[in-house]
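Lab notebook, bench 4. Still working through the backlog of constructs that have no structural model yet. Next entry is a single chain of 250 residues. Request: give me the C-alpha cells for it.
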Amino acid sequence: MLISNGETKMVEIVRKKRERVYEQIVEQIQQLIRDKVLSPGDQLLPERQLAEKLGVSRAALREALTVLVSRGLIEVTPGGGAHVRESSVQDLVDPLAAVMLKERENVFDLIEARIILEIGAVKLAAARADKGDLYEIREAALESNERMRSGNIADDPDVDFHLAIARAAHNPLLLNMMSMVSSLDRELYGPSTRRILENPGRVELFAEQNLAICAAIQDRDAELAGRLMSEHLSMTSEDLRRIYGEESAR
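Model written out:
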C-alpha cells in the first residue's frame, strides 16, 4: 500500500473539508449577487486579495470560481480578472431547450406551464393594465392578426401580443418567465406552429380569439379573459399534439 488506512482517512477528511470550504465560498458569492451587493459588471478583487478577505486558501477560491463560471454567474478574462456576468433569458433557455429537444414529450410540459402562466398573466392584466398597456395590447393584437392573415409567419407572429399582456400584469418576474417560455416556444415548436397557421380557418379563429381576449382585458373581466386564454392555448396544444402524432406515425 502506498499509504496506511489512517493516512487514507486523513486525506479523505482534508478533501471533504476543502470541498466544504469552496462550497461555502460559492454560496457566499451567490448570496451577494442575489442581494444585489454584487451587480452585473462588478469586478471581483484580485485572487490573492479576495482569498485573504474571505479567509480561505487560494486553491479553495479557485475551485469556487470554477463552479461560479460553470453556472454562468461570473466570467474570468485573461488579465482582466473575474467579474459578475450579465444574466439573460437565453442563459436559461439554452440548457432547457437542450434537454427538451432530447425528449420531445417534454414539449407538452412546456405547453402546460405556458397555459398556467398565461392564464394568471391575463387575469392580472385585466386588473392592473393602465391606458398605455391597453393601447399596446390592442395594437399588438391587430399587428399579430395582420401578420397571420398575410402569411408572415417566419417567426411566431403572436408572441408580441402575449408579451404585451405579460407586461400589463406589472410583475417583472412573471414577465421574465414569459419571455423565457416564449423563447423556448420558438426553439422547440416554431415549425409546428407555422404548420398550424398555414390553415386559413385556424388563422381567422386565432385572430378572433386575440381580439376577444383584448376586449375582456379592456372590460376588466378577469375571469372571462382567463377562460378565453385557456381556450386559445388549449386549442393550440391540441393542434400541436395532432401534428406531432402525424410526424411520429411517419
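Notes after review: The domain at 5-84 is CATH 1.10.10.10 (Arc Repressor Mutant, subunit A). The CA atoms of residues 209 and 232 lie 7 Å apart. Flag for follow-up if needed.
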